[in-house]
Write a structure and sequence with these properties.
Elements (H helix, E strand, L loop, with lengths): L1 H7 L17 H11 L11 H14 L7 E5 L5 H8 L3 E6 L2 H13 L5 E4 L11 E6 L9 H13 L1 E9 L4 H6 L3 E7 L10 E10 L3 E3 L4
Parallel strand pairs: 1-2, 1-4, 2-3, 4-5
Antiparallel strand pairs: 6-7, 7-8
Helix pairs in contact: 3-4
Length: about 220
């Protein structure tokens, strides 16, 4: 147990990938969806007030009249996608969480929206069509290794029409400069985000060279 704990507290190597597909875990995916849909929580999606402002800004800068076909990459349960649809974009969403995609499909149907959703890994997506605009929101790009970033950008390029645009958000240099390394733990006696029963959660914020940071997803 000591060595397992010691290993858990060591700073991970840069861009070390998790071996667990937690986004499709039966329990964790429920918690993730709940977090996405909380209008006042910004740990999975932005707060709903910020999303409204973002969509309003996007429609002014990249209007649907000029860029009608929109690909929402990493769309989650379709929060942005539905708001894009209400602004007259023709929306297609892609995400690697089956629970989120299932929710997005049901929600679109309930609201009478024509949004199309695909359960695919965006690093390997193959949609057999091209788009005027692709969005990659909530700093997904920053969570990828340099190799995966190139793979994703190549893939997006293949799905954009000539003259198409890619919109994405990233952390600023100021964020990196102010980022503080820390480790902490939490005793979750009644379960929590990661498990329904009691567990101890270890959290770490780590800083690397080349403007790279690592912090918990929840």
């Amino acid at each position: 147990m000591f060595y397992n704990l010691k290993e858990s507290l060591e700073k991970p190597a840069l861009y070390t990938k998790s071996k667990e597909a937690f986004w499709d875990d039966e329990y964790i995916s429920k918690q993730m969806l709940k977090a996405h849909l909380d209008p006042d929580f910004s740990g999975a999606s932005r707060k709903f007030s910020f999303i409204e402002q973002s969509v309003s800004w996007i429609k002014e800068k990249i209007p649907a009249q000029t860029y009608p076909k929109l690909l929402d990459i990493g769309c989650g349960p379709g929060i942005y996608a539905e708001k894009f649809a209400l602004e007259n974009y023709q929306v297609t969403g892609v995400d690697f969480s089956k629970r989120s995609i299932d929710y997005a499909k049901k929600s679109a149907q309930q609201h009478g929206l024509a949004n199309i959703y695909y359960y695919q890994d965006y690093l390997a997506m193959d949609l057999k069509q091209s788009f005027d605009l692709a969005t990659l929101i909530y700093c997904d790009y920053g969570a990828l290794s340099t190799k995966d970033r190139k793979t994703l950008l190549d893939n997006i390029y293949q799905h954009l029409k000539p003259g198409g645009k890619l919109l994405l958000d990233v952390f600023s240099q100021k964020f990196y400069q102010q980022f503080q390394e820390e480790q902490k733990w939490e005793n979750c006696e009644n379960g929590g985000f990661w498990r329904p029963d009691e567990y101890i959660a270890l959290y770490g914020n780590y800083k690397y060279s080349n403007d790279v940071t690592l912090m918990p997803t929840e």
